[in-house]
Amino acid sequence: MARLAKARWLGAAIPLVLFAGALFVLHRELSTLHLGSVLARLGSIPERTLVLAAALTAVSYLVLSLYDMLALRYLAKQLSRARTMLTSFVAYAFAHTLSLATLTGAAIRYRLYSNAGLTFTDVALVTAFSTITLATGFALLAGLSFLVAPGQAATALHIQQGWIVALGTLLVAGVAAYVVLAAKRDRVLQIRGWALRAPGPAIAPLQPVLGLVDLTVAGAVLWTLLPAEAHVSFLSFAGVYVVACVLGAISHVPGGVGVFESVILLLLPQVPRDALAGSLIAYRLIYYIVPLCVAGLLFAGRELVAQRARVALVKQAAEVYLAPVVPQLAAALVFLAAVVLLLSGATPGIDTRLAEIRHVLPLPVLELSHLAGSAIGMALLILARALARRVNAAYHIAVWLLMAGIVASLLKGLDFEEAILLAGVLGILYLGRCSFYRSSALMHERFTPGWIASIVAVLIAVTWVGFLAHREVAYSNDLWWTFALKSDASRMLRGSLIASIVAGAFLLSNLLGPPRRVISANGPFDAENVRPALERAETALAQAVLSGDKCVLLSDSGRAFIMYQVARRSWVALGDPVGERSEHESLVWRFRELSDRHGGWTVFYQVNSERLPLYLDLGLSPLKIGEEARVPLAEFSLEGPRRADLRQSHRRAVRDGATFEIVPPEQIEPLLPTLRAISDAWLAEKATAEKGFSVGSFSESYLRHFSVAIVRRGGTPTAFANLWTTPGKEELSIDLMRFSREAARGSMDFLFTELMLWGKAQGYRWFNLGMAPLSGLGTHPLAPAWHRLGSFVYRHGEHFYNFEGLRHYKAKFHPIWEPRYLVAPGGLALPRILADVSILIAGGLKELIAK
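Above: the chain sequence. Below: its structure as tokens.
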């Protein structure tokens, strides 16, 4: 786990280092420029050029929608063009601009496509297909650029022309090879455990062509905005553009901000710096910021136009339509609004507006509103993640901060544009207010390394912009205490300081605060509440609820329940829902909503394959964790050569004086002290402690619920096991099984054999021997990574747990092996979920995962 934590922090630090390096390059390249000259260059771009760039941007996003249409065609899914185009536009507008894990195009796609009937797997395949299409487009455009204009590419990239031609040939050949392989219908692509069907001859050739058209148009947007004195052909520029895009994506910096610009500045040294900087700003605004704002407002606008006859219906329809995507949308827009507020505080105000406001407001009001704007901006930046996680408190605080930000924007310099943007974000938040239902406290929302890196990156960038905008002002300590109408540099210093203080205080309190609260059961456990559901139980594992160490979520009728425990952030349910089958689906959704409301991960442990579709509908991913051994009792006996070992062990125990009996619950009380002594001696001999969750622990109150199998020697109890049964006699199993030193040899085999013979006589169908962890996982080189890792541990992990020995022992009863699964959210959360689950189950597996 320590290595995993280091890797997560290292992964977050690398983009931050790349971003800092990009800022260094930008500072070096732009150090001789004045902000006024850059803005003048930006303002000198002809309107005709801006209109052409906007038109090309529209064409680019239209081509991007064809990515999704082609992917849906590959999946044989029929969706309307309007829905596909809307989803694609919103997804790419967010993904291009932010590139944050919680705000990716994949998340937006899932929110919108799921309403049209697409599953989590379908959306993942659409995203993967579109990514491959984009990658082939990158490779093809770069390859053609290097082959057609190798001289200019060699000069820009500072690489020998021969290497440029070789690289271009390799890229084009790679795309051709992909098309040839992907055109074969019977070919299956194995990617990180996913088996993907090849697109086929009708789709595969279209992928690189579509990617080439998209990137050509997107690159043309920036190329069109370049000044006339650039003298760069489009083909040579295309190679530079692809390199900048790829490095920006690899850096994982939101939107590639800084990295993309620094690469363009480095690779186009012949273009005047101020003109190129102005073109890059215009490109960011036209291709990134404007589409993001349009995507954010499109939902509400569409519903308002459709339902303008009645305002109340408009409000209700907008709320329903926005609800699936509001958290991600609101988080992105609040993040954007925060950056705007911080940038506004770091750059000079407009002189004419300041001159107008000085006759109305005193200077202290202007100074305080400027400080308030910077503090509000940083606070909104911090709240964005909590909004993405649907925290109710974050919603209310963000609403008040946005209203305060609107007032501060007007008071500090009549920034109407800024106030309008904040008002639009506030409107989106209000329409989707029902989506923020989680009651988690803000201080319990642990910040991830990636999010901390994003906040630090924004703070560094804003501070750098502030110093760049005021570099003509010589620094002195007196600036901190200078208060005047035109003292923009002083206000920038104070604003940056207050933003840094707010960020530092919150991050330190978050990182050093108390550990996350673990939610436990409300009140003492009452077995009578679960009796109606237990009377309908189909598996013996349902009896684990009577241990009293788990929380219970009952259905409305009380005829079904889910038993679970909370370990850190993981809400782990044991087994499938128990009781009335018709109530299982609504119950698992209630459990999903309950864990989500508290910011938890929904996990189901040790479930069978029959119910997997139920969990897949929740957006969870299955992970095989072993096999359960079930003996069909109708076929069980001690006769025949297959049972020779059992028969011999059974006879040996009988010769040693072993006898067997079943003691019903009402007669167990006098035996409890003796059973306690056996249990304590067994724990001491094994040098272990009681466990919980999937197994019971010894307590008199727990054992009173069950019949107990007793093995005596010379009339004295020497071994016992409590029985788990089902009312319909579907299954019989045991929980606690403990022996004293005086037990006869082979008592374990004797106990199991007698229990199976007794169960057969009583009419039970199955005897459940429990699960063999990590058994039955695939060993093929193309098997999923988890299977290969689990198989390796199963074969070589005897230092931690006797995996093979346990399976070998159960195999002597010739059971039927049935797979068992853990279902949970996938991705980067999975290692933490496995660690959380290990806290709850057997100590051996806990040690294994911890190590």
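The radius of gyration is 33 Å.
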